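Could you join me in thinking about how sequence relates to backbone shape in a protein? Would you write everything just below, so we can both look at the same thing?
***
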Amino acid sequence: TDGLDPVVRRDVLSALLDYVSHRQATVFISSHLVHELERICDWIGVMDNGRLITEVPMERFKNGIKRLRVAGAPATAAGAPFLILAREHGNGGAETWVVRDWEPEMAAYFATIGAALNDVIDLDLEEGFVELLRTFRSPRS
């Protein structure tokens, strides 16, 4: 729908949703307009360089990728019940973590490593997409 005016874009997306719901059809959409996908898709697959790196229900992807504010974490976070996509050191020992497969009950993990979880921040689909791809594209050491 890139290049369409807003009225036509909404009409096209509405027609697509009507078709899918009436025919019980599956439609594959490839788009860089991530905000549109968030509104119309119930599953998401993320590809990078021809490789499928995740395929999950949309809500699971959106609910499972978070930015965490953590204080007092050890250098190695062994046994984490989630996948750590990024870990950035901040001022005063606080860190920002981006994690995947997060569930609220996992907050208890931080006490087991002597750290404090200060904040859990939701990411929208585009932010989650960018963080996931950044992890897969970063140089491996």
